[in-house]
Amino acid sequence: MEVRSPAEVFAPLPEGYKPRDPRATVLHRAVAEHLDGFLNAVSEEAPSGSGVPFHVEREMRAYKKCGVLAYGFARVRCTDCGHEMLVGFSCKRRGFCPSCTARRASDCAAHLADHVVPRVPVRQWVLSFPRRVRWHLARDGKLLGKVIAIFHAELSKSYKRQAHDAGIPSGQTGAVTFVQRFGSALNLNVHFHVVMPDGVFTLDDDGSDRATFHKAARPEPGLTREVMLRTARRVLLLLENHFDDVDGVSSFGPSVLDGLMARSIQTGQMPPGSGVSPRETDTAAHAEGFSLHCGVRIHENDRQGLEHLLGYGGRGPVATSRLTQAADGRYAYSLRRPLPDGRTTLVLTGHELMGRLAALIPPPRVNMVRYHGVFAPKARLRPFVVPKLPTDEPSTEAEGPPIALPKRPRRKHASYRLDWAALLKRVFDVDVLECGKCGGRSKVIAVIKDGLTARKILDHLGLGDAQAANTQPTGPPQLDLPLAA
To answer: Among 36, 94, 397, 484, which residue's beta carbon has the most beta carbons within 10 A?
Structure first.
């Protein structure tokens, strides 16, 4: 299909439609317009009429309500001038919502940088799989966990062997693994981003309860390929033992979601032997569909770079700035790099876009962030490795290895570690609680959770028509109110 430039093909949003963030509205409007038809269509295609799993439908319907004031909002007022705003609730899902996945990634990165990863150099290891392996990992959470354990074991073995050759026989490693289910073309591509201290930890045996970090040297030529081949060999053997035959056909039949995932995986696939072999280096290896990269290394003093890397690992699959709508109703997703077949823009119908989004939603009770080694919750060295919690008394210890840490108090569980105002201040250096008119402080004075009550209030304020179409941006939007002080 020949695709002209976006300026020639894609029309702007309808006249008079003025959301707070125009880039976020295309995806939200697409889901609002095509979700019901898509769910009905896939239900008719299924032999049993079951359609997509419940968790997929629940996630997509929740996104339709994300940021829509008609389903509830918080009322914020400036304590000085009385200026008021309404802030819509977010869906808090982890599948594809651009607003909620960005918030989750930033919050997770802040937590890891402050409370998990110490001030040591870290290296990112990125492992990708052949298409036939991705499909199995996407649908089977237990199999995914076993493959993650295999990869971390091989990485840990390489670091420990290098430390042993340097005279450090009892080194321990740690890692944080981000499971990403997506590629840059909205395709299903399960792969791992592992952030790992570039070295090993040892616990001093002098009774001082101190942990020392020993830096590793740059990966030797052939080390990356060796780790990848060992991992690939064990993963393929695991698949042979996990399924009934070597072709990877499981003992239970495929579902509607399995078909959506299979079609998503095939995006941009070239015929065998027609592609160009990737170039191998000391930090990149490729073989039989497996690939391993480890070229990104963060210095121990670059905490901002570390937080950016952690946020990149936990990011969401959809970049709303790259999604536009054509005059004929189709959607175009601009690609960061050309596909193997040469396309630079992915053109989808509304139902095709819904199918892509459904395939990217992770199954329930499958953790997308995993902790290994000394970062595991019950690890012996964890209290002596992770950064200190802030205390009132100034610390006199110098930063860097050796690391001596006291026992940490138990932290209370919370759904989010940073509230939304503190997180925006940290990520964007914007104080959202500062009044835009007088510079005073704002605070939440009411929270409306009932949708019926919310719609009555919006009708009273003359804002009911704006919410009726249920196509507002996911923002989260902040709507100025014409209320008296």
So the answer is: 94
